[in-house]
Amino acid sequence: MDSQDNARNAKPGRARGRPRGWDDKTAQNTIKSLDRAMEVFEYLSEAQGKTLTALAAETGQSNATVYRILVTLEDRGLVDFDPKDQTWHIGPQAFVIGARFLRRTSLVDRARPILRRLMEDTGETANLGVEKNGAVLFLSQVETHANIRAFFPPGSLSPMHSSGIGKALLAQMEETHLDRLLRSGKLEAFT
Length: 191
Hints:
Elements: H1 3-9, H2 32-46, H3 52-59, H4 63-75, E1 79-82, E2 87-90, H5 92-103, H6 107-122, E3 126-132, E4 135-142, E5 157-159, H7 164-172, H8 175-184
Antiparallel strand pairs: 1-2, 3-4, 4-5
Helix pairs in contact: 2-4, 3-4
């Protein structure tokens, strides 16, 4: 038997670089301290300019834990501390990491001239968004010069059913994916 015969008769194994429990997403396979840190980081990204005490209270974690998380994130440039008003903010390294996501695909670059033309033709702000975990993730925007305009900064998340992009995405979605999204949560009324 040669090496080709061995390869044909080999049992299918797991993909290289994946542990045995690759599909096991239970709590035993998560790093709880990292999960707590990400909770603080994500909360701070939505609620800029929070004190340590406020962050701890609003995330339900102890002051000591939140402080250690913030100092660690600060060392990485992901958060900044303003000593004047004793508040924490998202740092520049968070932008750098986020911008790498946009470089992963050429979608934003390719869409830019189309967004500009759409804005000019309609006189309205043109947005680019994709579906992310049942919400619209806004990637890019070309603003109108009109006095009244909608503004969704890149990185904003919006429920699918409450935005024009979300409704367009829902209208084109495969039925199985749509059913899964609709069953996963309640559709909150906004108007």
